[in-house]
Amino acid sequence: MKENKKILIVILVALSLAAWTSASAQAIDGAKLLMEVDRNLNPDSYESYKKLINIEPDGSKKEFVLFTIKKGKDKVAALFISPASEKGRSTLRLGENMWLYLPNVGKPIRITSLQSVVGGVFNNSDILRVDYSEEYNVESVEDTGDEYILYLKAKAKTASYDKLTMWADKARKLPKKIKCLTEKDMLIKTIYFKDVKDFGGGIIRPAVIETDSPLYQGFRSVMIFAGIKTRQFEDEVFSLTFMSELDSLRARGAD
Amino acid sequence: MDSHDRSPAEHLLLASFLTIFALLITFPESCFSAEFTFDMSEVEKKPYSFSGYLESKLLLFGLDQETALYRLRFYDQNEGNTTHEFDLRAQLDLGYQHGLFEVFVQPDILYTDSYRESGMTSKLLQSYFAIRPWTPLSVYVGKRSVKWGKGYAWNPVGFIERAKDPNDPDLAREGYVLLGLDWTKSFDGALKTITLSPVLLPVHEKVNADFGQVDQVNVAGKLYLLLFDTDIDLMCLVGESKADRFGADISKNLTSNFEVHGEAAVIDGFKKKRIDAVGQVTERAYDAASYLLGLRYLTAVDTTYILEFYHNEAGFDPRQMMDYYSYVDSGYQQFLLTGDTALWNQATSFGGAYGGQNPMRQYLYLRVSQKDTFGILYLTPALSWIQNFSDDSFFVSPEIIYKGFTNREFQLKCGILSGEEDTEYGEKQNNYKTELRIRYYF
């Protein structure tokens, strides 16, 4: 009888251990997953070209082309190449700090992340996207089989959106859709990631990002990526004095 | 021929020209294509760049014949109740970049037809050569607009720039001939960036002559810090052309839609010349402080508020302004009685100081703009208000801007000036102004 009791205890302990180990293996490290999503979206340091298209309900559209550079988690700069009315404008983001340089004004001015330098549905923080893991904490992750749903909460009040819900492809660990929400769960906009493309150099990511918003009924904005490539930059490139000279990086890149 | 002499047929011709100009630059473009394409050939970079804008502007001024500044300007002529002005402007940006070197030239060509003058003028807003031997360092020489300060409407710390027009703060301004450099160093931690920007500004009969006393070389400098996510600048200007001055500015985003900024400056031994009601000119030297406090706030429905308070001890107080207006009035009476313009000439020589942009001591600026109004993308109505706290006069300017057509910009702007007798806006020559501006970028 005593022997049976011992066997029973050993079995129970073994079962408990097995269950605990299995549960641990299945728990998803949300923070690590979000960092993986960030890295799959962009290399740590890179340059790219973006075309932003604002589409009105009647189908008319306005296009902007930007040269964008990024370094690390939170340094981004962008230069408007076209149209002519915007040419030479540049924007810089260092963490939650953002500036806009207008050639005629001749000096950078601070802007806020909720403004939009191009109008339309994309705001400044969408255009000057830093790593999601830099701005948001992962509150929870859901595994739905073929995708993860990440529930993100802003780290600081200066973030554009209080909450994000991100649907990510499980195999590629790339976002498919993001809902941007207020603190009270009101939908601000939905961002769709489309057309996963091989840009070379191991960069495989969505080439098109679309957004719509209940606040802009009938309007859409689209961002198309081209020429994404890994490139190293000195930190000083991400400074106010360099904002008027971002074009020189394109020249050097072409040399 | 003065514009007020124009016949109705000529007015019609002018209006027709404006309409044709507008139609030409707004000729419908292919903007309804359904497919989104992005080819790398669209972003090919050339060493040369040629861009800029053409602008057509029609202005209508409502004149107030009872004001001091009207009499000062039109004492010997009758302009009637209104006058107008037509401007055609080409501002070009010409650049050449090769490796580390850059040359940039920005000419501004203006054809004006107004009651004052009719003809073409041109000037170089900027013309400089720059070299960036390595990323943290840039050196430049030539005529360059160097802008300091965080204020939208005013910049008390703008020591080496021409005065900003608060009614059109984004307008390009002519630079000064300078030799300067920018050296930047980035860090990790609370202090993220430091930039040192020393400048040499020579003043000679033919170079920067309007800056101050000639045959001097002035030294200016700015130290920029990005510290605890806050922009901080410390700046100075020392030399013999102007009184030495020292200043600081600050700017920070408090939330994702709220920015605050400020500037403060002290002019050491500022010399202020004033003229009293009987024409006696006195000069007093004192340390004049000035400061500006401001904020920029964006609401959930995309309304932007810019609010700034400006205090300037170098300005005139209401008593001093009243003295000047009395003197102008005396001069006018003397001219009417005797035809003698002696008093008049002295009053005119002070016109720039008293009649220029915001010559008094305390102002409030408010600008409210609403993006994409009535569901129309790129349509932005705005209202700007400048309140003179020293004498309770004000200037209010509603405007509407449309940027819906690529590279075209339309602006309709009005300005209403209001104030009692002997106040700044009450004594301006205009009591309203209407402006239609069409701009084409290329």
Commentary on this structure:
The complex is a heterodimer of chains A (about 260) and B (about 450). Chain A has about 260 residues and is of the alpha+beta class. Chain A has helices spanning about 1-25, 30-40, 125, 130-135, 245-255, and strands at about 45-55, 60-70, 75-80, 90-95, 95-100, 110, 135-145, 145-155, 165-170, 175-180, 185-200, 205-210, 220-230. Chain A is built from five helices and 13 strands. A 13-stranded antiparallel β-sheet of chain A has the order 6-5-4-3-2-1-13-12-11-10-9-8-7. The longest helix of chain A is centred in the N-terminal third of the chain and has 25 residues, at about 1-25. Chain A is elongated and about 90 Å long. Chain A starts with a helix and ends with a helix. Residues about 20-25 of chain A have low confidence and may be disordered. With about 450 residues, chain B is mostly beta strands. Chain B contains five helices and 18 strands. In chain B, β14 (about 360-370) and β15 (about 380-390) form a beta hairpin. Chain B is globular. The chains are: A alpha+beta (about 260), B mainly beta (about 450). Chains A and B meet through β1, β2, β6, β13 and α5 of A and β6, β7, β10 and β11 of B.
Give keywords.
heterodimer; A: 255 residues; alpha+beta; outer membrane lipoprotein receptor (LolB), chain A; 13-stranded antiparallel beta sheet; 13 strands; 21% helix; B: 442 residues; mainly beta; 18-stranded antiparallel β-barrel; 18 strands; 13% helix; 51% strand
Brief sketch in words of this structure:
Chain A has 255 residues and is of the alpha+beta class. Chain A is built from five helices and 13 strands.
